[in-house]
Design goal:
The protein is α/β, with parallel strands linked by helices. The protein has one domain: Rossmann fold, CATH 3.40.50.1470. It contains 7 helices and 7 strands, in the order αβαβββαββαβααα. It has helices spanning about 5, 40-50, 90-100, 135-140, 165, 175-195, 200-205; strands at about 20-25, 60, 65-70, 75-80, 105-115, 120-125, 150-155. A 7-stranded mixed β-sheet has the order 2-3-4-1-5-7-6, with helices on both faces. A hairpin with a 2-residue loop joins β3 and β4. α2 packs across α6. The longest helix is centred in the last third of the chain and has 21 residues, at about 175-195. The two termini are about 20 Å apart. Mean pLDDT is about 90; it is low at about 1-10.
Length: about 210
């Protein structure tokens, strides 16, 4: 979906209701430093930025997720990390949306993207899942694809490596500095979505 397509849809308005920001990933230390968990990393970055002090995550039993409630500008924001594995992400997302009364258009899902080069961040609403099991589960559970995505480029695996193996391998130390910049860009994008809307966020982040 092009930026012009996004602009033609109801994406520019900024509401005062809560924004649900979900980082996709797998639970547990085994997966913490893998490419598949970059969504968790961005949500952690947003929690660290919270004012007046960094926010702590706690278990939200009704949704099987860890959450932190913050404000970005004047807007309440729920940061979430599902405690289910990636292919079951939709259950916690739907439960959180129902509990906090968040419509799909106010849900932001942050995920790894094989079809973007490492370091690239792209924002969009709707579209397909490109084989991403976390997005497939989320779309199925919500009954719609019309939620916002923050796409974190990780690139394609080298040679004939299986993409499933690639996304679950730890990120090399040599790439960690660039990843930190990418996570900061993605967090900037989420903050702009919360305060200024998707179109302004796209124009800002996509020009970097």
């Amino acid at each position: 979906m092009s930026s012009s397509d996004v602009t033609s849809r109801n994406t520019a308005a900024v509401t005062t209701g809560p924004l649900l920001v979900v980082g996709l990933g797998n639970p547990g230390p085994k997966y913490a430093a893998t490419r598949h968990n970059v969504g968790f990393m961005v949500v952690d970055e947003l929690a660290e930025r919270a004012l007046p002090a960094p926010a702590n995550f706690s278990v939200h039993k009704r949704s099987n997720a860890e959450i932190a409630q913050i404000r970005i500008g004047e807007r309440p924001v729920i940061l979430a990390k599902p405690r289910s594995f990636m292919n079951l992400s939709g259950g916690p997302v739907k439960a959180l949306a129902g509990y906090f009364g968040v419509a799909p258009g106010d849900i932001v899902v942050i995920h790894d993207e094989l079809d973007l080069e490492p370091g690239i961040v792209r924002l969009k609403i709707g579209g397909g899942e490109n084989g991403h099991n976390g997005l497939k589960s989320t779309s199925k559970s919500l009954g719609t694809r019309d939620y916002i995505r923050v796409r974190m480029g990780i690139g394609r695996p080298p040679g004939r490596m299986d993409p499933a193996d690639y996304v679950l391998r730890p990120i090399p130390q040599s790439q960690c500095a660039d990843l930190a910049v990418q996570c900061a860009d993605a967090a900037d994008g989420v903050e702009l979505i919360a305060t200024s809307g998707l179109v302004i966020a796209q124009n800002t982040i996509h020009s970097r």
